Amino acid sequence: MQDRFEKKERRRIRIREKVTGTEAAPRLAVNASNLHVTAQIIDDTKGITLVYATDKDKKLTEKSKTEKAFKVGEVIGELAIKKNIKRVVFDRGGKLYHGRVKAVAEGARKSGLEF
What we know:
Nucleotidyltransferase, domain 5; about 40% helix; globular
């Protein structure tokens, strides 16, 4: 079991070495746990979170976790556009790019973010 977590941590570190958020293109970090999905846009140069969205919001009425993840992507995209953020770099956090992680990315692209 420990080997699985070590492999995920190595993947996460390897991705973070390549993906760093700047002022021009902050980092869109996605965390998909067993129950919830959170996404945040981070400026790594200043070390601050610019925009944050989660599926724990009571306004989300979608049934499946993937539908909720897509909606989280749309919400974070809309909030980013309001803060005048149009371009981001995508950080999948060591997870594979499919399922809920992919749904967040597609929702963010649909709302106008570029990456």
